[in-house]
Amino acid sequence: MIYEPKFHNESYGFRPNRNCHQAVREVIEDVQYRKTNYVVEADIKGFFDNVNHEWIMKFLQHDISDRKFLEIVEKFLKAGIMEDGKYLDSEKGTPQGNGASPVLANIYLHYVLDKWFNVIVKRKCQGQSYLIRYCDDFVCCFQNKWEAEDFYQELGKRFEKFGLELAMEKTKILEFGRFARHNREMRGEDKTETFDFLGFTFYCGMNGKKEFFRCRVKTSKKKYRSKIKAMKEWIKNHRTLPLEMMFRTINAKLRGHYQYYGVTDNIKEVKNYLSQTKWLLFKWLNRRSQKKSYNYDTFFNGLLRTFPLLEPTIMVSLFYG
Fold first, then answer.
1. What is the pLDDT, as a whole number, of residue 78?
2. Are 138 and 18 in contact (CB under 8 A)?
3. DSSP string, 192-229
4. Whole-number Å distance between alpha carbons of 82 and 94
5. Burial grade of 30 (CB within 10 A; 0-12, 13-18, 19 or more)
6. Tens-place pLDDT, residues 200-218
7. 277: closest CA among 305, 245, 217, 236?
């Protein structure tokens, strides 16, 4: 892959030996141990649907001289889609669900965002600044407020040049970091704001003994609700399965949830997810027939002992060392 050596270190999505947890860990490192006082939280509106074909081809031509390969990519981009039995030309965007789309997305944002941030934005800043990106999801950290504000203003113009648009209702500057709580208290303002990134909510906290600042994370409310809804729908639609098969599948779902959300500081949220799953099972297994199958004791002290659910645990440490 000729682009792997070119990509900047702050890009984590769809690259070898890189994952979401590393990106989350990097945000924590930048906030907790570096001079971050402000965070720009940004969201690209319909990124995969708005990638400009002309620009992506220019970026590819800058690094690749093989004309046949470039022709294949161009045909792939213009392949179109079938909607309600009708063929529609694709004038922009990349076909989602195809293995090439994440790679093209990384190349596009490498030039539109990463390179611009490192070569232009960072060099203009008097204070420290950091970018952390996972595919089309990214946050930027700044030491100085005015530099965060300048970046916020320039970001919209930069994206517009390349056919992209910021979702303004999801794009904001927030005071965040070790001094944010104290500064807001001095001004008589509410507690520090939070921001979401890769399914986690980042918030300002302290260590267990309240001796020093900690950047903490928990499952975002939006993701938590969607996960509970998905579990509810699955249990509801499969409540007539044999119990052994049903509980085996639910444990597989719980394991997947723990592997992603079972991170430092988030044990309470994953325990809540397990608790909600138990109550959903109690509710829908009692609707397998007209007669109520279980009461509290026969379910929690009987069935769940016969078919135990996986207990949550911290699977990933978000701190180095």
1. 76
2. no
3. PP-EEETTEEEEEEE-TTS-SEEEEEEE-HHHHHHHHH
4. 14
5. buried
6. 999 998 776 767 889 999 9
7. 236
User: What is the length of the chain?
Assistant: 321
For residues 286, 287, 292, 294, the Cα torsion angle rounded to the nearest 10 degrees is: -10
Q: pLDDT at position 98, please?
A: 65
Q: Cα–Cα distance between 42 and 215 in angstroms, integer? A: 19
Q: Give yes or no for a contact between 184 and 191, defined as CB atoms under 8 angstroms apart.
A: yes
Q: Is 220 left (phi over 0), alpha (psi -120 to 50) or beta?
A: beta
Tell me how far CA of residue 64 lies from CA of 30, 61, 97, 166, 271, in angstroms.
34, 5, 24, 29, 50
- The token pair that represents 59 in the structure block: 């970026």
pLDDT of 57: 92
Q: What is the pLDDT of residue 89?
A: 53
Which one, of 162, 96, 140, lies nearest residue 8 by Cα?
A: 140
Res 87: pLDDT: 42
Q: Could you tell me the two tokens for 269?
A: 């949220």
- Start-to-end C-alpha separation, the chain: 30
Which token pair is 281? 């099972």
**DSSP letter (8 states) at residue 191:** S
Residue 222: how many CB atoms within 10 A of its CB? 11
Tokens 């723990």, residue located? 258
Nearest to 10 by CA among 126, 134, 104: 134
Q: Do 86 and 110 meet the contact criterion of CB atoms below 8 Å apart?
A: no
Reported for 118-126, long-range contacts at CB under 8 A and 24+ positions apart, including other chains, are 118/8, 121/151, 121/154, 124/150
Q: Which residues in the chain come in under a pLDDT of 50? A: 82, 87-88, 321
Q: What is the CA radius of gyration of the chain?
A: 24
Q: Where are the alpha helices (DSSP H) in the chain?
A: 20-32, 47-50, 53-63, 67-77, 100-109, 115-116, 122-124, 145-161, 180-186, 221-237, 243-261, 267-285, 296-298, 304-306
Closest alpha carbon to 47 in 111, 98, 96: 96
SS3 letters across 96-107: CCCCHHHHHHHH
